[in-house]
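Chapter review: from sequence to fold.
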Amino acid sequence: MMGWNQQQLQEFDKLGYLFVPGLLPTHQITELNSAVPRLLAGEEQSDGIHRERERSGAVRQVYLTHRYCPPFKALSKNAAIVEPVKQILGKDIYIWHSKINVKDAFEGTVWLWHQDYGYWMWDGVDPKLVSVMVFLDKATLNNGCLMVAAGSHKWDRLEHYADEETTSYKQWCVDTETLKQRLTEQMIQPITGEPGDVLFFHCNLLHGSGHNMSPLPRKTIIIAYNELNNKPRSVEKPRPDWAVARQFEPV
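The token string follows.
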């Protein structure tokens, strides 16, 4: 068993996240990073892996590596990740989706303040999901590290709107007036760290990130887990399988 102690579980419940430095060994991160160039260069028709791109054509997200790329498949089943998620959710779990987020040096752009459940709600699930972010690169204030609002998961879901102007792609985010009413400077915590560090966070945790102003790229892999008994209900416009899994194999 590689689960958390009571203090760690209480901290996650209080803050909506838990940061675990050095959870994964250097050799595993090296293996994962070795696979990334091929993942960025591939085509969905040949490898089954979905890629989201900037208008320039540069890949900014890579989905489904947990199914088709052995190092990432092993990561998604790593007991140091899976056991705490099972403790948090208290149930059997499956993978909702996985994605590599890429913030290239000087080019990786902002992610506005949002909750993942702000739009996952429309997929027909309850807020019983946990995301696990594994650092593949060093994350600093300068290269657009993740920012979280400590304790914001206690607000439950906030209303979100579709922003189609800030970046080259649509983002679901919380409006400025709501942020002014809810968010304080003291709540905002930058999550900086090293390759192999891992962040666990609740689906209602408010988070975002800034532009990469640094010569350092920032890559992470996020694996989102859902309760097995929280499978998506029928909705009018279901998102594709790479975003909302239709495979429910228990982890």
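Two observations follow directly from the output. Residues 9-227 form a domain with the Jelly Rolls fold (CATH 2.60.120.620). Residues 26-41 form the longest helix (16 residues).
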